[in-house]
Design a protein that fits this description.
single chain, alpha/beta, Spore Coat Polysaccharide Biosynthesis Protein SpsA, Chain A, 8 strands, globular
Amino acid sequence: MFDCSVCVVIPVYNGSRHLPLLIERTVSVLSNFKDGRIIMVDDNSTDVSYGIIRTLADGNDILTGIRLDSNYGQQSAILCGLNHCDCDYAVIMDDDLENKPEDITRLYEAAAKGHDAVYAINSRPGDKNLFRRFGSMLRDATFSLLTDKPRGIKVCSFRIINRKTVDAIKGADRRFVYISMEILKKTTSIGNITVEYGPAGRTGHSPQKLIRLLANIYVYYSGCKLLEKLAKPGPAYKVLEKTGDHGL
């Protein structure tokens, strides 16, 4: 039993097929911790994802579901989840079981050695197609240019963040947020572990989305006053509904 609390934040978009098994496996892993929470943030899915989340939350007192009033994107959904997290650590993982819940304990053990954040990198990067690998390289190069990202550190969607870093990220209430940029702007105490990913789920990667992502990162995070004028006003997200609101 680990003497700490862990909150697992899962952004959800049209992930209904995987949700019951994902929650079953995550609940099992969290039983190894003093306290565990799961926050699933539905980014206004067009399938039955939120209905499944509501049903699962009714039968499980560690699960809270949140539905956003529009489709804001994965990063905003994660920020929403972090804003409702009150545990010692927050784990962020995808909704399609490509990230294995059983690796949460390994992430925690690495973070407990003193890191503010730890990323779980795929031990088989060759599983990614050529475009996804190129996109990851270009994104990491952008991070290195705009932040003090430690040399050799890689980022991905599967990670753990300590309480101090979560609290620092919570102030990021702007139309575009990118969680790894928020982390890298707040700390250089970052580690990597390697884990074996599950089969890749759906992918929304495209050249157009990559270009848009990199452009937004420069607009919102470069510190360039000229680019800041291009930033769109408004909040990162708005909550439409909560279910299983267990003290959050």
